[in-house]
Known about the structure:
Order of helices and strands: EHEEEEEEH
Radius of gyration: 18 Å
Structural class: alpha+beta
CATH superfamily: START domain
Distance between the termini: 33 Å
Helix content: 10-25%
Amino acid sequence: MRCIMNHIEHTIFVSETMEIVWANATQLIDLADWFPGASAVSGDIMLGDEVGARYSLHTGRITRIDFETIEMQPSHLIRRAFAHSSRLVGGEMTTAFYPADGGTVIALSVDYAVRPALVERLIGVRVQRMVERAL
């Protein structure tokens, strides 16, 4: 199945120490606070973030993004695999932390694939139904 690969990078400055930023970034119970539109988080969240942890970020009544932590370099890097509950989008997200004057720089890098064949199939069915109803 062909996929369209995409890459996004974004960097922000936070006026807190790396220790404070890292502690907040690895408290999975608060992960929904990091993502606009997220309502809750579930899964292996009480232990904190560690390699192998699996958890879901709920973005609606029935939609979610499933995560697994696949790499961690304490205080410096978290790499997570993710997939939308529809399985139409998935990839890896890397969050790196760097000391900066008066705070911390957070560098986010996301590589993700959109599976257009599935999207086309789903949209095609919907369009087909619309056409049939119109006839």
